[in-house]
What does this fold into?
Amino acid sequence: MAKRMILLEFNELCPSLLQKWMASGQLPNFRRFYDSSDVYVTEADELKAPNLEPWIQWYSLHTGLPYRVHQVFHLTDGPRAGHLDIWHALQNHGRKVWNCSSMNAGQLTGQNALFLPDPWCGSQETNPNDLAPFARFVAHQVQEYSNKENIASRHLIMEFGRFMLVHGLSFDTIFATTSQLLRDILSGGKTSWQRATILDKLLFDVFKYYYLHEQPDFSTFFINSTAHLQHCYWRHMSPDEFSVMPAAEERDRYANAILFGYQQMDKIVGRFIKLAGKDATLVLATALSQQPFLKYEAIGGQHFYRPRNVANFLEAFGLRPNQIEPVMTHQYLLRFGSAAEASAVREVLSRVTLNGQQIFGFDAADAGSLYVGCQIRTSVDRSASMQLGGNLPSAPFFEHFYQIEGSKSGCHHPDGCLWIRRGEHREHAEKVSILDVFPTILEYFDIPAQSCVGKSLLPQTGEVSRTFLKGVAAAAA
It folds into this structure.
């Protein structure tokens, strides 16, 4: 029987929290996975900010290249970088591959590939085209989740609904979605933060539909909801670690938010164990994890603000980019006709201030483009006005911006999880690099790894491929 593998990419889950909640019996399916796997703690490619970001680390994992080589720094840079990733490497050797929303990855084409871009890489087309309605709806929901003024259009919702009805929508997902919406109504919206986990269930249904119909050799499945909950609610889970305390009502509401996220992912793990059966090896990777974020405690935590309508805001200055691409919750990539035009726009926006502080921050981009985002991180008074520069009058800050709910209380940590489910439990004490994942997957499929920084972990799992044995024979000769 041909080898198959499913790589579960559960962004930023923490080894310590998994251990804690598995031990207490609250994550039974993770426990099943763990007890039948080779278990590693991974170390990220880059250990400190600003390079300890998921869109950098996942790109390193997928290509086997360290950041110092690939230099992919921004979300949406990956598809344009052109490095050989794990899906193309396998596809080049005749394997059928299925990339389901993996972060910062380039498009896959051809009959032996399926591709659903991550919600921020909207420039990448789905394969097959049938997936496009799902991709459009999910991209809108993820990019605009915090903006109550930009809800999905009726057309977007209808085409998404039609797609799901014939592409695997399950009773479990229908029941979970209906129950969630009912809870939101009965609670007056106090449980709306839980909606992010519904996307994971919808994504699993779509993954399963194509997995069963297309029978890919190698598949990846990326979800991010619990990483989002950790960023938002670590303070509520462990208030004693912080100096700034949430209000009692808020603390009670979100105290178990992160555990809720892990438990929802636990249910998906159970469904994957059933889907894989004995035909496929399951691998769990998190790339990195999180820890309490204490840097901004002196100013009441870190806050984020986002333009209500970035196109309208720019239009007020007479600025008209050729294209506006959201790349993070608070940041956009603006594309112009020339480098000179991009430079002129940067000069205009750099004059926009709040209490003497420049509102917009900028990152380097290719010629003719500009990364721009609100860099205000402190609490802003509701009556605050911003200065627009030049001869323009001041304007109320919250007329043009809104505050994203909550303050950031979880930040990135370089430790991650790597579990390779081969039927036996072995814990490996020594940390391994995320760069080891790429050659391990190639070794699993008997494909030689060339120019890899990392090393294959398969010999440690008790499985030695034909390629490995040939290498040993060659070395002995």
Summary: The chain has two domains: 5-291+412-469, 305-403. Confidence is low (pLDDT under 50) at residues 465-469, 471-477. The chain has 18 helices and 21 strands. The longest strand covers residues 37-43.
